[in-house]
Hints:
The protein is α+β, with helices and mostly antiparallel strands and 609 residues long. The strands form 7 sheets. Strands 5, 6, 7, 8, 9, 10, 11, 14 and 19 form a 9-stranded antiparallel sheet that branches. A 5-stranded mixed sheet has the order 21-22-23-25-24, with helices on both faces. Strand 2 and strand 3 (57-60) form a beta hairpin.
Amino acid sequence: MYKDLKQALLDLEKAGMLKRIHREVDPYLEMAEIARQAFERKGPAILFEHVKESPFRAVCNIFGTRERIDFLFRDTLEGTQTAVLFKSNPVEFFKKANFGTLLRAARTGIHSLPKKNGSIKDFVECKLSDLPQLVCWPEDGGAFITLPQVATRPDESSSVMKTNVGMYRVQISGNDYKQDIECGLHYQIKRDIARHHQKALEEGRPLKVSIFIGGAPAHTVAAVMPMPEDLSELLFAGMLGGRRFRYFVHNGYLVSSDAEFCILGEIQPELKPEGPFGDHIGYYSGKHDFPYLKVEKVLCKKDAIFPFTVVGRPPQEDTLFGDFIHRITKPMVPASVPGLVALHAVDDAGVHPLCLALAHERFLPYAKAEDREPMELLKTANALLGFNQASLSKYLMIAATEDDKKTDVYDIPGFFAHILSRIDLRRDLHFQTATTIDTLDYTGARLNHGSKLVLAAAGTVRRVLRSDDSDLHSLNIPGIESIKIVMPGVLAMQCNAGFSVHEIEVALENWTYRENYPWITLVDSADSQDELDPANLHDFLWLTFTRSDPAKDIYGFHASTKEKHWGCEAPLIVDARIKPWHQKELSVPSSVKERAVKILAEEKIMAGA
């Protein structure tokens, strides 16, 4: 397969999947907007031949369509899936195995082992300021590297097989960083680099960090692969790439022989402000103190190409990363969490804010269906909230597969209907308060802190969900501008500024259909929502789950607390209005959008954009 990024790009170009922009393009907002528009319209990968104030070319949207990802990994995907199945479920693997399967598994295993190869002579030196100074959103705190492969080892003497590789954004200008000498390293909670950093701090030494940019496409994917702690992402890079990961060691630093750029540096003992940065949930993450590197050396290949991506409100290119990884790791998650059948971290909701799970409920197999209640489901839910990246879930909705074998976590309206028609709102809401949440989620009390909610449902249907607009005629609530049905049993209400949630409870007291609509999301008035429509499922998911903290923002009809357990009657009310402590929603000036449209049209990449 591909030796490096350039080989992959040439292959894409031959297949008509990559186009070039020959004019000079500005890395300040302009390149990012071109990338966003190319992704939104399922356009090609784009190679920028001339980047303003940089000697290097740049490329984006490499992974922008499922077709393109499948093309890049057409020779290795099946073998990688086979290897993952063997690792997660050997019994199932051998049930399905034939000679071809075993041969693929053996070949994939050979390719997975890293290979020492190459030297410092294969690179030349450059400076951080030589790189394209990519600024994706107007209020970003500086230029960022958005597709880095950040590699660390427990210490310099550790085997390469102990290497952790993650994708943590790197800020290369702005704030208090000394130009060309320092760069910010933003790693979120529940990231494996923390183990290596902790060990270095305990031993009173700096942690050596290598930041690779480029290399074979498999190397980039490996950096976002949720590998077990005892397995290096370098193994997966070789497996998916169909070629052993080439490396050498320079002054104690691991260097990827096939990368376009390698930044080598040590994490300093103090912290420095990093950010703001327009992030993948759809809002800015703020300026906070994070680790930073003192840069020892920046290496690059001759005629190096700088790959980048742009994150923002889903879907974006990283959505395709998630989809691809799911296809590979599908057998692993149920094998890792006993009782789990299926799991879906919902991209439209920002990924971590909402997770849908299907699991077994077998604690009382002799119980009648009408007597079934969440028991084993709660064990599985707790396991999920301690498992890998699923531990960052804010809302976890979990259902019993025994109630309906056709329930599908990827059918969001169907899954909501399954949960809402069965859930006992007095019994089946389980909060975790004053706990950790995703670093990028600002709905909680402070950075990394907030709450979680498990909504578990098992048993027979206890309420019939409705979706009839005529039901709303008798529901008049002062201060509510509009009430819309999102899906069966779910309402979205837009309200005036200063509206009190308790006004809803008063109005619901005599509403005939209160039990038939067990979920209400409260959002800001239409004037403040730009072009968002809370009745649209895509907008509903984003508004509801990125703008609410369970402990702060959930209310309910006739709510009460018994033995420290909170519950209510239908409906549950989620206050998803913007709060003063929330971060700003991402947007770009219309002039930037218009400029990108013009460039794409004039370069004949996407005429009529």
